[in-house]
Amino acid sequence: MNKGLKRYLLAIIFLIFICGSFLFGYAPGKDIYFNFYDFLRTMLKFLPAVFILIGLFDVWVDKEIIENHLGQDSSVSAYFLVILLAGTTVGGLYIAFPIAYALREKGARLRIIFTYIGAAAICRIPMTLFEASFVGIKFTIIRLLTSIPLVILTSILLEKYLNRRDYELKRDL
Amino acid sequence: MFYILTSILIIILFFKDRQKTIIGVKKGIKKLTKNLPAFLNMIILVSISLYFISDEVLVKYLGQGSGASGFLLASFLGSITLMPGFIAFPLSGLLLDKGVSYTVIALFTTTLMMVGILTYPVEKEFFGWKVTIIRNVLSLLIALIVSILVGIFYNEVII
């Protein structure tokens, strides 16, 4: 099968399923379509903009800046920088992946980008405020203080493991 | 809102260096179209999972969660669902009112945030399947440790 077509295979099957559901009045199919539509709309609110920002970042930010601050010889402050960046990340984990990839391309070291991904999952600021108001500020503080060190620790271990295996990112994404 | 900020940035950069900015925007659009199938697949998986795992299902299963089975259920449901914070945390508040322990809530929300079975198509696209699996397993471990620590702080887990 054509490679481009293969990447859209699930989407094509899904489209046929949804069309069929509407044609034959299959209620679960319709519900799934409305879920799909809702989530797609949420994604369209920021996904294209995020990618344009990544493109601009790629062109405008010098590699040396990222290498110096987040690269192989960066200091402990690199963790603070990426956790701060993670705090302001929009969306969810799925937005953190392309951003982390762009940082890696610019020379950020692996432990820093994995810390970024983990931190983007657990301490995005708007989400944390939501948590504190619904579950309690004590809970939020305990959760952050226990999970951030663990994220940093596992990122260091993951980097060590991947460096031994000469891990490299896929090119040209 | 996000688009306004992006547009302002583009306009400022455009005046600083027209050529560079155009290349940047083009690169961004190219990256977006290249990764579109992965994101589309993720949206499809999420929309299907949301049909099976509604709020009511979560309340029902997490509500009775206690002991080892509650633990397993919370981490399983957290790992296979993806929902924004403004839905997840009010739901957690509701569960607390129903008597669900902080330990289970911590496990559910942490796996929800860190472990992404549904984001697999996107993560694999950028970092490869091996790293994706390792990172998710590590995240599951983190969630377990965090929830036990939360339990100790709230005197729910007795050492």
Helix content of chain B: over 70%
Approximately how much helix is present in the residues of chain A? over 70%
How are helices and strands ordered from N to C of chain A?
A: HHHHHHHHH
* Total number of beta strands of chain B: 0
> How would you classify the helix and strand content of chain B by structural class?
mainly alpha
Distance between the termini of chain B: 49 Å
Largest sheet features of chain A: none
Strand content of chain B: under 5%
**How large, in whole angstroms, is the Cα Rg of chain A?**
20 Å
- What structural class do the secondary elements of chain A suggest? mainly alpha
Reconstruct the topology from this structure:
The complex is a heterodimer of chains A (173) and B (159).
Chain A: H1 3-7, H2 9-24, H3 27-60, H4 63-70, H5 77-87, H6 93-105, H7 110-122, H8 125-135, H9 137-164
Chain B: H1 2-16, H2 18-52, H3 55-63, H4 67-80, H5 85-97, H6 102-114, H7 120-153
Task: Characterise the protein shown here.
The complex is a heterodimer of chains A (173) and B (159). With 173 residues, chain A is an all-alpha fold. Helices cover 80% and strands 0% of the residues of chain A. Chain A has helices at residues 3-7, 9-24, 27-60, 63-70, 77-87, 93-105, 110-122, 125-135, 137-164. Chain B has 159 residues and is an all-alpha fold. In chain B, 84% of the residues lie in helices and 0% in strands. Chain B has helices at 2-16, 18-52, 55-63, 67-80, 85-97, 102-114, 120-153. In chain B, helix 6 runs antiparallel to helix 7. In chain B, 43% of the residues are buried. The mean pLDDT of chain B is 90. The interface between A and B is large, with 69 and 68 residues.
